[in-house]
Give the backbone structure.
Amino acid sequence: MKSSQTILTLRGVTRRFGGLVAVNKLSIEVKEASIHGLIGPNGAGKSTAFDLISGLTSADAGEIIFRGEIVTHRAPESRVAAGICRTFQTPKLFDEMSVLDVVATGRHLHNALGLWGSMFSIARKRAEEARTISAAREFLTTVGLGAKADAPVADLSYGERRLVEIARALATEPKLLLLDEVTSGLNPVETASVGELLRELVRLGLTIMLVEHDMKFVMGLCDDITVMNYGSVIAQGSPGEIVQNPDVVAAYLGSPRDGQRSRRSLRADAPACP
Ligand SMILES: Nc1ncnc2c1ncn2[C@@H]1O[C@H](COP(=O)(O)OP(=O)(O)OP(=O)(O)O)[C@@H](O)[C@H]1O
Ligand SMILES: [Mg+2]
């Protein structure tokens, strides 16, 4: 049964870039062991919201509370240690590293070492790191990439790179996983298997926030959805409530002020837009 306990609260979180308010008084409650979708047209502020939650950028106003603690201005490593981990809209992987070593860096982040330090320590102390390596193998198996552990990242397909990013994030043992456009560039079979993986992770107690443009994926998977447009929340609710919300439909269909801005369909049977 789903918990109704809140794991993450954003209260009035704001981030400006010069004169642009990228995220404007964003308030969200994310329930533990749920999947919370964050959607909206291009430039709505979704990735910036993830940057704020993960500490990559800092809030100009508002408060972020994770598991009862205020983390608003904590460093990214401290948030990873607290249990917040994210993947990026564009996978950030080093081609020359082996898949296993990439996932092991997540393990080192879990051990509160910096990413660069952990990379060098992998090179120096490999013999002492049997436990790290074996844990990394397990996380790769979880995402279905156990057989590719020793391959260089360069040999992987785009979809497999996405899975490696997820495995690396899982290796930090997060309680909250932030996935930024995790299905972008994946084929329908890969997308469906990522959906299954996420469901399984939530069954195991993980909480997931998803930024997504694939409406079929979002509507089929999420328990709750927050819709942003021009930095502000325009709707929050269940998938059923969101698809019928006139403000959301208008934001996705575009309006004269949008010009050539994103015109993505909200229909669950619409083709995914990368
Ligand atoms: N570092 C930055 N400096 C200046 N402007 C920024 C910066 N990061 C984001 N922005 C601007 O903030 C707004 C929100 O950007 P963001 O990347 O959060 O949108 P998004 O919802 O993730 O869009 P997309 O769906 O295209 O990924 C955009 O207008 C963007 O140009
Ligand atoms: Mg984005």
